[in-house]
Amino acid sequence: MAAQQPIPVYTNLADLYGNLGTTLNHAERWNHLAEEFQKRFGRKPAYIARAPGRVNLIGEHIDYCLFGVLPAAVERDILIACAPRSAVHPPSEPHHEAGSVIAENLQPKYKRQIFAPAPKRRGSVAEDQVHIEEWHLDINTKELRWESYVKAGYYGVLNNYFTGQDLPVPVDILVTGTVPAGSGLSSSAAMVVASTLMFLAVNDKLDSNFKGTGNQITKGQLVEMAVMNEKRVGVNSGGMDQAASVISIPSSALYISFYPTLEASPTPLPLGAVFVCANSLVVSDKAVTAKRNYNLRVVETLAAARILARHLGVRVGQEEKITLREVVGRLAGEVEEEGEMPLEKLKEVLQKMDGELEVLKPTASDRLGVTMEEMIKMSGLSESDFNNVYLSWVEVEATHFNLYKRAKHVYSEALRVLQFRQICLDAAASPSSSPLAVIEALGKVMNESQTSCRDLYECSCPELNELTNLAIEAGAYGSRLTGAGWGGCTVSLVAEDNVEVFIKKVSETYGPYKGLQGEELSEVIFATKPSSGACVFKFED
Ligand code: NG1
User: What pLDDT shows up at residue 142?
Assistant: First the structure.
């Protein structure tokens, strides 16, 4: 149900944050952004779009295999202030063409950018019958550029709402953010969601007909659009980050499932459990390393799924990219139209999968990965069909493909998500259960996840391994990497009354934190509170 709701639009900050204390904590930032906008662009903003980052509590690298995950939005967010330019500039001025953007960022290292989308037109100007078929925006996927994420959000708005005769307004924008970039807290998804929302709001499209449905855009549809938009930056992501950023509610984690459709249900977190994020300070740029890391894993899991389907006699179309989730669904006779099978049944099927994975190992016993040639042969497809289905849309770089390890991680991690969720639900249903026993049980599942990410999915790194070990030594019940890994943040489960001591111990023992104090330290290691999802603030005239 949560995914079917409209995007909230507020005119009052206290309504947005829901309580006075939190409002006061954040008001200064919002005011500063609005004032700075006025200084730079000579008028008040019309809207500020907000999208939070997220911490994934459990369920790593399984969203793109269509398995459910369990993240929570964090309070750290991206804010984008905007105002249309048409009211103040005559059309003859430069940068006034339809949809042109002047984008500034409060962080001085991110320089001012000016860009305009290029329409592909059809029809005759003389007869006043020009139709725009498609909009194009140059997005540089080869290097990390802040405005690429703004453009990615814009792309979907242009191509979903402005094909035809309607034209987007020229707009000035000012961005600020507190989600550390490249840290696994999803600053990229927060940027893309905030940008998508901001371009919808400034063009008056939040209330209008979404893709001919006759209805305004829902949270679920915004998630879908933001996922498509983020692909423009070159990462074939699953939908976890965008869903968490858009649909989250305060005080709960969100169980997000993707198959057969996107569903999100709040999962209460046990009393006394606090999740602490710690940044390893290894910056992992997913877009730049995608062909060796993220996108390679996407291809490995897809190839593994086809080979397993073939081995298990599961139906799969010649050109279909069946996922590991669909393999178990079809194996269990799940009917797509009836929704997801009961989670108890899913657990049962998952438990059996471990015994089926041998087929993914190479014949030579001295290595675990298969070569490209072996993988194609195992898939039962011809080389050209394999390339067409699995490699034509993505660039990967590898000599061996670790199908066995990847599938083993995915199925076991999917099971851990269900276990984690069940522990939370059971604790909420029986308030008399021992809080410590609940936290210990959750911590154990998190530690198993870290081991699996490190050894099977190989998405950890020495610094993340060290940081999770130090966290356990400092009293955490569980600690794991969060997000894509290869750098970025860890999330540790700590008992509420031990948070301060925990943070102190980790900051004294993790080398890269030496010398950090005060605000600098709280930038890299901090307790999180599950926050609300994305929204729009509208300034009244
Ligand atoms: P991060 O790196 O935290 O943005 C990425 C993907 C997620 C998910 C995780 C791994 C994007 C935008 N996000 O998260 O969808 O696959 O890795 O669990 O690519």
Answer: 75
CA dihedral 29, 31, 35, 40 (to 10 degrees): 40
Distance, CA of 530 to chain centre: 15
Instruction: Report whether 493 contacts 477 (CB < 8 A).
Output: yes
- Predicted confidence (pLDDT) per residue in 165-177, tens digit: 889 999 999 999 9
Nearest-CA residue for ligand 1 atom 4 is 186
Q: Please work out whether the CB of residue 379 comes within 6 Å of at least one atom of ligand 1.
A: no
Q: What is the mean pLDDT of residues 481-501?
A: 95
Q: What is the pLDDT of residues 292-324, one digit of tens each?
A: 999 999 999 999 999 999 999 999 999 999 999
Asked whether 332 and 341 are in contact (CB, 8 A), the reply is yes
The kind and range of the H/E element at 31 are helix 20-41
**Cα–chain center distance at 20:** 29
User: How many angstroms separate the Cα of 289 from the Cα of each of 141, 235, 456, 459, 535?
Assistant: 11, 10, 19, 12, 31
Burial environment of residue 322 by CB neighbours within 10 A (0 to 12, 13 to 18, 19 or more): buried
Q: Is 241 a catalytic residue?
A: yes
pLDDT digits (tens, 9 = 90+) for 414-468: 999 999 999 999 999 998 889 899 999 999 999 999 999 999 999 999 999 999 9
Q: Which residues pair with 77 in a beta bridge?
A: 52
Residue 87: predicted pLDDT: 52
Q: Best mutation site among 237, 295, 446, 482 for ligand 1, i.e. most ligand atoms within 8 A of its Cβ?
A: 237
What is the model's pLDDT at position 40?
97
